[in-house]
Amino acid sequence: MKYFIVLVFLCVNNYISAQVVSGIIRDSDYLPVIDANVINLRNKVHVHTDYNGRFEISEVALSDTLSISHVGYKARTIIISSFEDKFDLILDDKSISLSEVVISPELNALNIITKLDLQTNPVTSSQEVLTQVPGLFIGQHAGGGKAEQIFLRGFDIDHGTDIAITVDGLPVNMVSHAHGQGYADLHFLIPETIDNIDFGKGPYRARIGNLNTAGYIDFRTKENLDNSTLKMEYGQFGMRRLLGMIDLNNSENEKLSPYVAAEYISMDGPFDSPQNFSRINVFSKLKSKISETENVTLTLSHFTSRWDASGQIPERAVDTISRFGAIDDTEGGTTSRTNALVRYQKFLDNDSYIISNLFYTRYNFELYSNFTFFLEDPINGDQIRQKETRDIFGLQSEYHHGFDYKGWDGEITAGVQWRSDIIYDNELSRTANRQITLESIQLGDITETNTAAYVSSHLSSGPWTIHTGVRFDHFEFQYVDALLPTYSTQSNTKSTISPKLSLLYNYTNNLQLYIKSGKGFHSNDTRVIVAENGEKILPAAYGSDFGLIWKPRRNIIINAAYWYLFSEQEFVYVGDAGIVEPSGQATRNGVDLSIRYQPLSWLLWNMDANLTDARASGEAAGNDYIPLAPRATLVSGLQLNSSSGLYGGLHARYIGNRPANEDNSIIAEGYTIFSLNAGFQKRQFDIGIQIENLLNSEWNETQFATETRLANENSPVEEIHFTPGTPFFIKCSLAYKF
Fold first, then answer.
1. Residues of the chain with pLDDT > 70: what percent?
2. Quick one: CA torsion of 401, 402, 404, 410, rounded to 10 degrees?
3. Do residues 633 and 656 lie in contact, with contact meaning Cβ atoms separated by under 8 Å?
4. What does the DSSP assignment read for 497-517?
5. Strand 685-692 and strand 671-682: pairing?
6. pLDDT by residue (tens digit) across 231-282?
7. Cβ(122)–Cβ(95) under 8 Å?
8. CATH code at 24?
9. Which pTM value belongs to this model?
10. Which residue range is the domain that position 365 belongs to?
């Protein structure tokens, strides 16, 4: 009888002592971890964190153990020793396994895919940075120093006209740039500092404004280093690279995490005329937890680069000068960029926080090109110089508020943005031999200011999630033309509203269906706007996606979507020639397919395939092709990372034939290129090799249908002009971590 009484007493005491415990789960950036799983190991009661990272779990007794876990983070356990404790826990990053992924409304499965790719096959060159985005292709055509040409969703984006690119929120694109609208040079980003990539295809995010039509990319750099690294790379064609990443937190102060990274790279390339390319990058970051509710991050970076280039060559000249020869080998340029970014984060209460960014950029650019050889000037040639210096000032502030009300939980976000570009001596001139200025075509100062406000919401109830948003943008354009006989400020203003709406339905924990819709836009060059008296300043793009994210098995994840995009006006400033080309309306639609399969914990197969149909609206059938719009692309690879330290992979990228002009009479030929990487990590050392163009294929990296005239020709010829792709290229690397 007494044992029964004791048992009853223990049960009653346990019941009386059982209470509700709450807390907040954050990541290493002190941001809320959404949908983390919190489980009481004693009675298996479990809950998930909301949009604030908060959880509230009942039936908890003293000495109970709570386990907290989320895909991509190291699990933590806490023992309940007092009900008065306020839990504010930080989850550290860890390697992702597909078997851990559960499809939920709060999970950004596309970013999980990208993070998985980064951890299994980290990028080691600036050219590889953009290709981490599924479906995105690039091409380099100016000696390695010029920004890459980008292809995505049926767009020849040139250097950034239809994709918004940022690094930690710092804008990369240059509006009203001397070489072309939206010019996005990412070469100031050291690849090894990348922690994650947030990206989206289509104009569906209220936070993203100008140039977000085909999509957006936000690179997130590491908040701290696990260790310091020294790395050396040596390759063919005079390739040399040195990298240093130093953790400066010798005291292991958890509230302070400073580090610095520096990179030097040089290369001559496979061309007959050496490209004499060199680049220096310096990057530093300091994160400080200044109080229990406040965090500040300071980022400083600088890069400078110079190069020579052989330029594009016409097909008819290959037999005379070879594929790696040049018609004019005096092309090339210099560029530099200095960035300062301050990020402030303030937690107002358990439901709300604010993130603000203040940034400044100083930028210089000078580029010499010759696209038509002797078409315009049969004596001196058609070399041009594009040059500018600019200051960029900007501020972004975003308020987040999470809530839980009558079966609905979610988050409301409101933000304001301001950016002002002050551009000095924006120039287009005809030159000779990079030394003599023959004629100034355009020269002037530009001031372009974009002020924006937006609000968005994420509402979830059961299997349903609704994302809504609306964005307001106002632009002010000013241009002072230095070539006019009298001083005059030409100006214009324009505003636009961009609504967004998406609907997600979680049929099961392994299948999510979604519909996305939204309006985006890209602004035109200020010089074009004032020249056209304000016509078609902010042409809009209307898009929609219909897709699914599916895990048919524990180690496979599939993302498939059909998408459609209508471009109101493809009105593009062609910086290479200093002219305006209004190309009218256009429609694009296609299918995206991404698959990640992890048959073993150390083996991953990836595949990203894209089919697109891009046509100009209102044009006669057969004459409605959009030049250089990609029709079919495929990227696939097999990567292994064993526990013994051995790693390696085989990868392929394919782009199909595509029209080079409006009637498809000139074809830009497609290609398939294979690459291989292998290496071994042992203790503090990492030795590896990378081989590009494994089969030594002959391919054209960038191609254009251009009308040109050579020195010995009496009349011009229009045909494909190309920059040859790199032949078989091998480089070795040695890294030491400490």
1. 94
2. 110
3. yes
4. EEEEEEEEEEEETTEEEEEEE
5. antiparallel
6. 999 999 999 999 999 999 876 666 788 999 999 999 999 999 999 999 999 9
7. no
8. 2.60.40.1120
9. 0.92
10. 109-737
